[in-house]
Amino acid sequence: MSEQKHPLLTKSVLLVALSHAITDLSQGALPLLLPFLKSAFSLSYSQVGFIVLTQNLTSSVIQPIFGYISDRFPMPWLVPAGLLLSGVGMAVTGLAPSYTSLLMIVIITGLGIAAFHPQGAKMIHNTSHSDTRGQSMAIFSVGGNLGQACGSVFMMVLLALPGSVNNTLYFCLPAILLAFMLWRNLPVLSPATVNQPLNTIQKKKTSAPIPWAMITLLLAYIFFRSSIAAGLTTYIPLYFGEYLGGSHAYASYLVSGYLLSGVLGTYIGGVLGDKIGRKTIILGSMLLTLPLLILLPHATGYWALPLVVIIGFVYIASFSSTTVLAQEMMPGYEALGASLTIGFSIGLGGLAVTILGYIADHFGIPSVFSVISLVPVAAAVLAFFLPGRLFKADNVAVSKQPAS
Q1: Full residue range of the structural domain in which residue 83 is found
Q2: Which helix (H) or strand (E) holds 108?
């Protein structure tokens, strides 16, 4: 059945994508709140860093635990519950009476984010036709990207109002509204798990073994891609703003342009993945990124802006394709596949910043871009060995199986 013939499926994708945006508001909002929390609790930079690490571990790295559990014991209610935890957790962050309670709130917020993503991505997979899964996953991913961007803007507005950090309470409003809408629509969003007994659902799971070698290959590719992302967002402002002695405002424009173009690249890449093959997008993304990254440190003046915009568009174009490919290689374990590609490997990609920091300290910031420009080579080699054919839409045979 195609989405065109069943508009409810399209509405389902849009509702889950909007919920993804509301869930990820907290991820975009927390960084702006950190300076206020540092001042309020007289925190050291190490303590501030531990807050960020805590959020990263609870919201990203542990996602596969929720993915595995929700595949084994279908729990569609995790989507509204995770959204609600994320929103309410962010809402009370500004009201925390101590550093210890603040960390507990961050953990609860992160667990809500981690619970939402695997089951939400599974809903997208199961309510989409196999020919449009890339596009649907791209819409879901764009929702998260926009949510993080809007979260920072929303927090900035709230902090400027009377009440300052206490205004985080307003984050509970969109969370409660969307959680209620999701709960009311669970029979449409996940009909197989809501309307059928658990033993019937488990019998439908495929007995095909999971190709862990190929999954590991794909996760290594995502780790390299995430390393590029973490490196660029960290060192573009440091290189163009401090090392070259440029304007810090211009450096912030570069990062904003880079991130916004990534939103468009996510959607276009997902659509193209359905048409010309996910492997084509995954491999082509890194091959096109390679020369652009080589040119980046040599860009002077305003030429840097269009270059980072193109980089942001091209390198992130494979985002939804990697998630869908993992789900297609793991039929019956779509939530686990999504959690491994969206949460775990991306969370580990942040570790690259530590390595790049060591390189910057000992060899200078320009050497960081030299290292980053080599990463697409390793990623492209891995992509070449992934399953699927180039310029063919039928990447993985199991993708044509109907979703349970």
Answers
A1: 7-199
A2: helix 99-126
Residue 79 is assigned to a structural domain of this protein: yes
Q: Quote the CA–CA distance of 51 and 106 in Å, as a whole number.
A: 7
Q: Is the pLDDT of residue 204 over 50?
A: no
Give residue 105's identity as a one-letter amino acid code. Answer: I
In a domain, 403, yes or no: no
Cα dist. 104→65, 225, 264, 385 in Å? 19, 31, 35, 43
Concatenate the DSSP letters of all residues of 164-227 into one string: GGGGGGGGHHHHHHHHHHHHHTHHHHSHHHHHS-HHHHHHTS--PPP-HHHHHHHHHHHHHHHH
Q: What is the pTM of this model?
A: 0.80
CATH code, domain with 117? 1.20.1250.20
Mean confidence (pLDDT) of the chain? 84
Crossing angle of helices 248-276/133-160, nearest 10°? Answer: 160
Q: Which two tokens stand for residue 301?
A: 């003046």
Confidence of residue 129 (pLDDT cuts 50, 70, 90): confident
Asked if residue 333 lies in contact with residue 211, where contact means CB atoms within 8 angstroms, the answer is no
Mean pLDDT check: name the lowest of 32-46, 196-210, 232-246, 249-263. 196-210
- How far is the C-alpha of 92 from the C-alpha of 278, rounded, in Å? 41
Q: Are 25 and 147 in contact (CB under 8 A)?
A: yes
Tell whether the torsion through CA atoms of 215, 312, 349 and 371 is positive or negative.
Answer: positive
Residue 400: band (very low, low, confident or very high) from pLDDT cuts 50, 70, 90: very low
- pLDDT of residue 53 exceeding 60, the answer is yes
From 169, 199, 229, the end of a domain falls on 199
* Residue count (the chain): 404
Q: Shortest CA distance to 277 belongs to which of 217, 312, 322, 316?
A: 322
Please report the pLDDT score of residue 402 as a whole number. Answer: 37
